[in-house]
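Lab notebook, bench 4. The sequencing result for the construct came back, and we need a structural model before the next group meeting so we can plan mutations. Quick request posted to the team channel:

Model the 3D structure of this chain.
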Amino acid sequence: MRINRVIAVAALGAVAITACGSSSSTKTIESKDGKVTVNNGKHATVSVNGEGDNKITFGDTLVPAGFPSDVPLPTSLTIKTAANGTRGSKAYYQFAYSIGSKSPSSIISAYKDQLTSAGFQTSDDNLASGSVSGVQATGKGWTIIATSIGAGTGTDPVLSVAIRSS
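Done. Here's the predicted structure in token form:
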């Protein structure tokens, strides 16, 4: 698939741009399969535009422009990385948050309450297993899956939120 070739070009382009130590904050590499843009500004990102309307941007720490205002995101947590993209008519978002010393189950419980209050239907099974906790929600044309992995796993405690249009 062409998007895979574009992603490979993106990886090579990011390495090449980093190795060159360019003073410019934005570089774009184009091929017959698409375009890769690396922005080394305050919020460094890599964007890949493939054939048609297929595109992805990753590496930012902000909620992207155009994010649906009727989809709540976890409160009182800081985004560590964000990605967003489109494939045809579908939109996709991915956020990662550090949860610090908070428990995965309390983070998921609070986010589940936010989603329910916003009119989303949440799963009854909390997708919990040991130090992993999660919730799935649907509504307003979106599917949301949030999982949290906590302390004791050998990794930094994180919350991952994946959102896609239905």
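Confidence is low (pLDDT under 50) at residues 1-23.
Will bring this to the meeting.
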